[in-house]
Amino acid sequence: MKCFNHDDRDAVGICKSCGKGVCRECAVDMGKGLACRDRCEMDASNVIALIDQNIQFSPVGKNVMGNMRKNTYVQASFLLVAGVIFLLTGMASGRLAEFPGLLGMVFLIYGGYMLWRGLRLPKQTQEQTRRSRLSATNRHSLNTDVE
Prior knowledge:
7% strand; two-stranded antiparallel sheet
């Protein structure tokens, strides 16, 4: 790959911001990537800061995804119970094919789908849960120290 600005020079890397090849003369080392000198330095530093922020918050995302399975079971349970109640109401009134009975069937079908979806989600081990909570607690204590 050649430098974007100098056709006769080989590129030593790619700018973190614009993705163009840069030679030694055009490149600025940003510590965690290269940037085009006098053009992309601010943008590249913003990209690097964003990546660092995402890495810092990745345990929070894992904790949210771990709770997703439990939350899906709660939703499915609610829908299944509501479906049974509406279905029984429709049957008791003798009008199963009208609104309460149909609504009950819809709730039962959707509740069954949510239950199936919850079963397909990956299980979070107790160790992963403990690590996620520990990192969230550490991050919270760091944020309160700064304030």
